[in-house]
Structures are given as structure tokens and as C-alpha cells.
């Protein structure tokens, strides 16, 4: 249903570097960069290459939290993102585990940036299932 998501951040460069470092294990890469004033708008993509997660400069100070979920191809990828978050010193809210209350096989962890943005990494329990992981 969603085509893309844009998030306004205080520091686009630092935020893009953090997202790329943490989510490299699930194939996140920079797809586009558009100069805007003294900053940029950065389009990040998954393995398909289409920019669907955008970071742009905030126009003012915000303290609202935001939940963003990225799809992962396997539990190993979820664990690799968790390890990258720990290595980067990011606050871990929940270590990866199965969350059956969402749906059978839902495996995720979550972390928070210093600005309060949260994200989840998810996959199904059966890595060979035909049904793709569901991210809400």
C-alpha cells in the first residue's frame, strides 16, 4: 500500500550513515541524493534498488517518536542488524525474539536512535515459506 516513507531528521548525513551501517545486513543502500540548501534529501533502498525510505532535513525541532519497520530476509539478517546496532552504541529496546502475538513466526528486535526513532527488523519463522514477512 505504501509507495515510500519520508522522515525528517536533524542531521541527514549522520542519520543516513547510521541507517546504512545498521541496515546494511538486510541490503539497505543509498539510492539517491538530492542537494537541498546546505543539506540533502537521501533516498535509501532495499535490495530492489528503489528509493522508498527518505531522509530529509527537519524544519524545526521535533521530539515525536516514529516506528519504522524494515523487512529482513532471515533470522540471521535480523540478528546481524541487532549486532550492528549494539556495536554502534544504539539503545536496544528489545533483543531479537519471536513475537507470536503479532503472528506465528514473527521474529523481530527494536532499537532507538537518540532522537527517539524506533525500528524493527522482522522475518517469518520459516525462512523457506512462500509468504513474505508482514511488516506493520
UniProtKB/TrEMBL annotation:
Pfam families: Glyoxalase (PF00903). It comes from the Bacteria. SUPFAM superfamilies: Glyoxalase/Bleomycin resistance protein/Dihydroxybiphenyl dioxygenase. Residues 1-124 form the VOC domain. The lineage of its organism: Bacteria, Bacillati, Actinomycetota, Actinomycetes, Pseudonocardiales. PROSITE patterns: VOC. This is Catechol 2,3-dioxygenase-like lactoylglutathione lyase family enzyme. PANTHER family: GLYOXALASE FAMILY PROTEIN (AFU_ORTHOLOGUE AFUA_5G14830).
